[in-house]
Amino acid sequence: MYKDDGRDDSYGGSGSYRNSYDGYNDHNDNHGSGGNSGTGGSARESATVRLLSCATKRKPYARVEVTNSSSVDGRFVVTVTFRDARDLKIASKREEAAVPADGKTIVKVPVPRRAPIAKVDRCDLSPKAPPAQ
């Protein structure tokens, strides 16, 4: 349920990151996906996430900034989907991030071992990370 708290509702940048090594520019990318479904009785807030960089051969992980706007420390689940140049899903990976109250942290989300890192062209993530269970 939406409740207007009077604050500015800016969510920062998130969504997709394309590796630019092939010069391919797709203006019809599907940026970000899905929403956040509530869990019964949980009063904890989700964290905001922002993709800093996608995985490459030299750095086989995505870097994600996780922001906790709550007044209490929290652990959050960040999910990155790795896609190829044709926008096909190669793999998804989840990582937990411990974030201090009203703070930020950067988490590295590695490409799963069996996924072909050379084919990763872009990374997608949702703009929110739910609290860890």
From TrEMBL:
Which residue intervals are annotated with compositional bias (Basic and acidic residues) in the record? Answer: 1-10
Sequence ranges of Gly residues compositional bias: 32-41
The region called Disordered is annotated at 1-47
Kindly provide the name given to this protein in its UniProt entry: Uncharacterized protein
Organism for this UniProt entry:
Streptomyces thermoalcalitolerans
Superkingdom, taxonomy of origin: Bacteria
